Amino acid sequence: MSGPGKAAGMPGRGEISLGARFVLLAAVSLTLMVVDHRQDHLSRVRQLLTLAVYPLHAVVDLPFTTWSSLASAVSDRREMIRENERLKTQLVIAQYRLQGLNALARENQRLRELLDSYEELDEDRVLIAEILSVDLDHYSQRFIINRGSVDGVYPGQPLLDADGVVGQVESVSRMTSEALLITDADHAIPVAIERTGLRTIAEGTGDSNLLRLPYLTNSADVVKGDRLVTSGLGDVFPAGRPVGIIEEFVMRPGQNFAHVTARPVAALDRDQEVLLVWHDVGEGHVEPAAGAVLK
Amino acid sequence: MRAGGSHWFAPAVSVVAALVLAIVPLPDSIAPFRPDWVAVVLLYWSLIEPRRYGMLTAFWLGIVLDTLSGSLLGQHSLALLLIVYLSQRLHLRIRAFPASQVATLVIVLLALYELVLFLIDGFAGRYVPLVERWAPVLTGGLLWLLVLVVVERSRQAAEARM
């Protein structure tokens, strides 16, 4: 690694005292941190570094990938047949629902035309990404996916699974990207209560089963079991995607806001694969708007 | 210098192993107890061969750790620099210590390491659990004792063979 290589050529190392070296390198570290925290200048450096440590990620992920492919290779024939049956049933149900939706989409389009506000309802481009089995930091809800700038991934890109919103891409390197779950304590997502259309913000808590909605007043029309969907504000997430289900609504008399929590609907801690969505957000959106970005 | 001190193979392998162990996924129940593998291994080598593995090694390893864990660039560097600096300042005295005292000192250094990470997380406005944070210090201390036993055994075995 870098250590021995650096130490091999150490001209003049005896001249600088231990304390001076410590102060010097500590100052470099501090400067790096401040720059990294305040600005974006280091994102190129970070991309290169991430590419450099890619072999480590790959090595750690390898046994897990091998195991799961082995497991599927030797899995019982009967089990396969059963799974196949189950998937067929699911597909039929999904297609039945889709028929209804297609009809609705056509009707919607016709009504829009009538109202002269016809807009092209684009199909979003999607790509399956696999989550690498790498544990970054036990307390932050981050993960690495096996798609990078080669695949056109961009920072702020939404990630979904079959059930709902998973998170968003935070930084992109060539082969991999780092993403943040919606339950990360640093993440906030603009949502709407599906039943009433009330818009608010859902914040992560650091617990992958819990979202917090800190900006709902005591008089808000919210009950346990209400579904949360993305509101589409902030232009990061596509609108109308399921986010969570209200789990608790407790009024706090004498305080501005009620205590409201929700449970995410996406299988955040069980996902193996996620869907990267290229969601068209019009021109001129270089920076994601406030509210939908990391705090 | 001691015989065998010239080769870099063992340190390199142990450092790579420590990096892998630092990011390998663990079940949720034991993940909070994951020791700071890299810090322990680095402390070990910086005490064994202080002239070879010192500040620069600590700095670069820290940068690698920061990249791997997505923390601020320089965060782990600073923490590693501090503990390696202190261990090298005390280096001569440490050599005279009995193993139990060295282990205590290592635990103190690891606690300091976690404290630095903790403070920087706090300044950066990141989520910081207060209590669970300190579990790696204890497991790190245990790991240190384990390393000492293994190394001592293999060294004795090697000398016996000669």
Average of per-residue pLDDT values of chain A: 81
DSSP strand (E) fraction of chain B?
under 5%
Largest sheet entry of chain A: 6 strands, antiparallel
- Spans of at least 5 consecutive residues with low confidence of chain B: 1-5
- What structural category arises from helix and sheet content of chain A? alpha+beta
Helix content of chain B: over 70%
Please tally the β strands of chain A and state the result: 12
| Number of helices, where a helix is a run of at least 4 consecutive DSSP H or I residues of chain B | 7
Task: Describe the global form of chain A.
Answer: globular
Order of helices and strands of chain A: HHHHHEEEEEEEEEEEE
- The number of E-state strands of chain B comes to 0
If strands are numbered along the chain, what order do they take across the biggest sheet of chain A?
A: 1-12-3-4-5-2
**Largest sheet entry of chain B:** none
- Provide the structure class of chain B: mainly alpha
Roughly what fraction of the amino acids of chain A lie in strands? 15-25%
Summarize the structure.
Chain A has 295 residues and is an alpha+beta fold. Chain A is built from five helices and twelve strands.
Describe the fold and architecture:
The complex is a heterodimer of chains A (295) and B (162). In chain A, the strands form 2 sheets. Chain A has a 6-stranded antiparallel beta sheet, with no helix packed on it. Chain A is built from 5 helices and 12 strands. Chain A is an alpha+beta fold. The relative contact order of chain A is 0.12. The N terminus and C terminus of chain A are likely disordered. Chain B has 162 residues and is mainly alpha-helical. Chain B contains 7 helices and no strands. In chain B, α1 runs antiparallel to α2 and α2 packs parallel to α4. Chain B is globular and about 55 Å long. Chain B starts with 8 loop residues before the first helix and ends with a helix. The N terminus of chain B is likely disordered. The chains are: A alpha+beta (295), B mainly alpha (162). Chains A and B meet through α1, α2, α3 and α4 of A and α1, α3 and α4 of B.
